[in-house]
Design brief:
Blueprint: E1 2-7, H1 13-19, E2 27-30, H2 39-51, E3 57-59, H3 67-73, E4 78-81, H4 83-94, H5 103-118, E5 123-128, H6 139-158, E6 161-166, E7 169-172
Parallel strand pairs: 1-5, 1-6, 2-3, 2-4, 4-5
Antiparallel strand pairs: 6-7
Helix pairs in contact: 3-5, 4-5, 4-6, 5-6
């Protein structure tokens, strides 16, 4: 099983994805980079941690580019939450917001898609759907929307199931 769970902000996508893996202990790949200076971000991360079953293992990859290879090696159920935050970290690290090279971002995205495609584990990926709104007014907003839209499409192509959450309601796309 390979499932992509898409949705907007506060759509219920993470809770829905977690509910897909309740039969066995899973590995939760946390993509958020903690920021001790941001109390609100810290509270969001804590809420996700509290909601996870106690039997789940949490993995925080030191190098976000290692996500694709991690999925290739994974043996048990894996939940990646979330792809949009992971992509943001890649764009930050590449200096892409300021016009830095997108090459390392593209390589990591390709490796993620390939790793998902060859993984023997059940994988559930959570990602934001950002293509339904207006065209962002800033270069960085357009960059993020375009990169995430292309990545979501490539991941969906490798998934057996694709679900879109709207107002907490899951809509099966595939």
């Amino acid at each position: 099983m390979r499932t992509l769970v898409l949705g907007g902000t506060r759509s219920g996508k993470s809770a829905h994805a977690e509910g897909l893996l309740t039969d066995a202990p899973a590995t939760y790949v946390a993509t958020a980079r903690p920021d001790p200076d941001d109390a609100e971000w810290t509270a969001r991360i804590a809420a996700h941690v509290e909601r996870r079953p106690a039997a789940w293992q949490t993995v925080e990859l030191a190098d976000p580019a290692g996500l694709g290879p991690y999925l290739e090696r994974a043996a048990g159920p894996v939940l990646v939450d979330d792809v949009a935050t992971w992509l943001t970290t890649l764009l930050d690290d590449a200096g892409a917001w300021e016009g830095g090279s997108l090459d390392p971002v593209r390589r990591a995205c390709d490796a993620l898609v390939d790793g998902l495609g060859t993984s023997r584990a059940d994988v559930v990926l959570v990602s934001a759907e950002v293509g339904l709104g207006v065209v962002p007014a800033t270069r960085s907003g357009r960059l993020f929307r375009d990169q995430l839209g292309a990545l979501n499409a490539a991941l969906a192509d490798r998934c057996t199931d694709v679900v879109l959450l709207v107002a907490g309601i899951p809509l099966r796309l595939r």
